[in-house]
Amino acid sequence: MLLDHDRCYRALSARDARFDGQFIAGVHSTGIYCRPSCPAATPRPHNVRFYPTAAAAHEAGLRACKRCQPDALPGNPDWNLRDDLAGRAMRLILDGVVEREGVAGLAAQLGYSSRHLARVLADELGAGPLALARAHRAESARALLAATDLPVSQVAFAAGFASIRQFNETMREVYDLTPSELRTLARRGRQGRPTGPSIEGTTVSVRLAARPPFDGEGVLRYLADHAITGVERVDLDRGSVERLLPLPGGESFVRVVLDRSRPGVRVSARLATLSDLQPLTARVRRWFDLDADSPAIDEQLSRHAVLAPLVHAAPGIRIPGSVDASETLLRTMVGQQISLAAARTVLGRLAGELDVESRAARTPEGLTRFPSPAVVAEHGLSVLRGPRTRVQAIHRVASALATGELHLDVGLTTAELRSRLVELDGVGPWTADYVTMRVLGSPDLLLSTDLVLLRTLRARRAAQSAREAAQLGEQWAPWRSYATLHLWRAAPPALSSRARPSAAESPPSPAPRR
């Protein structure tokens, strides 16, 4: 990825925090790398080079700045925006695939040879897959040292290191500090101990930053509107959501609380194994869209007359992501063609009656997991209600997911995931776009056939049909998913029950509370 030196240097000179996490400034006269907003004196132009990743800066022989702590940031929004091989690889690396399956497993999931993948990543991101995974492990370890009281040995394995020796050597090389010294530095200027329990058996608490502005309340309202009784618990007053999360090492009970003192969330989780911490943080970041480049999105969308007042009313709007692609697809299919309230009732009954595998895993908080595709495939026909064709379509999709015939993950491109979905019987364009937007965090999907969106556009005399909505949406690229969210939120109430869909496919009214 080529970085424009003059543009990056202007951002560095202005200490522009909007670019934090989007590139690294490597100061070769001092041997350190910084975030763009670092308060240190601005280096001379010929002494600084700009890198797309911290791993690239490490490969150039630089260490992290102790003053600005450049990895204590939201992630790079490019990994959701980019659909090329490098972007797909980074999504999987952040999910911990290299630690679980190695570089060969990563390459196999992406459909390329390990050699070709390493060459592309080195050209695009300045480092190969092992170096990128190593840099991510170091960043995860720094976050754990700062936010938890985990013993250093447990931090090493929770961050994905294979040994204590490897952990110590990496931290010394990247930060020029021992883990204990880094813990002291990372907590510099903070009052008191880390909040919440940092370890109780296998329970950890960490804080995840977001790039401001951050409309976390909007994501939480969306989750509350779609919550299934017994599966999720959302408390809007406390700003929290609780549920079970399927992770590679097993089920994890997760509680996410909005941090109302600064943009971000606090996550507390009971993990089956500490090695699940990396995939947990990656999935919570996608769940709340923490890495979105809100300043760029708001600036672009506010240029358009239809969206400007909506952006002003809700700056920093985020895509409510998915914590499990299979669950998102099945929930969406069950909720098609019915109201949001009806969908929640049907899904609640489905989760209750198919509580086959989860009774033993029920949490002390009284929550259970949404039925897995295998359980829906085995028992769904006897429980699901509605038109026979739709019930059979849900059963076929659940069976394909359970057998692996249908595979969904964040390493797919937007086009590839959407194509896999529309090929399924019972999945139309609206469902494919909606699931793709939530699973991948794809920023540029306008759900132009959505009746709630069209109701907003008609009320504002901006478009009368799906075709006109699609044409209008071309002006909002590459942020059409965020435009969809704004239009959902601003929808006027339906005039009557006759406004329900007939020919057009419709969600269980996926808009946040209106």
CATH class placement of the largest domain: Alpha Beta
Tell me the distance between the termini: 41 Å
Shape: globular
State the helical fraction: 40-55%
Instruction: Output the number of helix runs.
Output: 23
Going by CATH, the homologous superfamily of the largest domain would be DNA Methylphosphotriester Repair Domain
Explain this structure.
- The chain is α+β, with helices and mostly antiparallel strands and 514 residues long.
- Mean pLDDT is 88; it is low at 191-201 and 496-514.
- It has helices at 5-13, 54-59, 78-81, 85-94, 97-110, 114-125, 129-147, 152-158, 164-175, 179-186, 216-226, 277-287, 294-301, 308-313, 325-334, 340-353, 373-379, 388-403, 414-422, 429-440, 451-459, 466-473, 480-489, and strands spanning 24-27, 32-34, 48-51, 63-64, 203-209, 232-235, 240-247, 250-258, 264-270.
- The strands form two sheets. A five-stranded antiparallel beta sheet has the order 5-9-8-7-6. A four-stranded mixed beta sheet has the order 3-1-2-4.
- It contains 23 helices and nine strands.
List the SSEs and their pairings.
Blueprint: H1 5-13, E1 24-27, E2 32-34, E3 48-51, H2 54-59, E4 63-64, H3 78-81, H4 85-94, H5 97-110, H6 114-125, H7 129-147, H8 152-158, H9 164-175, H10 179-186, E5 203-209, H11 216-226, E6 232-235, E7 240-247, E8 250-258, E9 264-270, H12 277-287, H13 294-301, H14 308-313, H15 325-334, H16 340-353, H17 373-379, H18 388-403, H19 414-422, H20 429-440, H21 451-459, H22 466-473, H23 480-489
Parallel strand pairs: 2-4
Antiparallel strand pairs: 1-2, 1-3, 5-9, 6-7, 7-8, 8-9
Helix pairs in contact: 4-5, 4-7, 7-8, 7-10, 15-18, 15-20, 17-18, 19-20
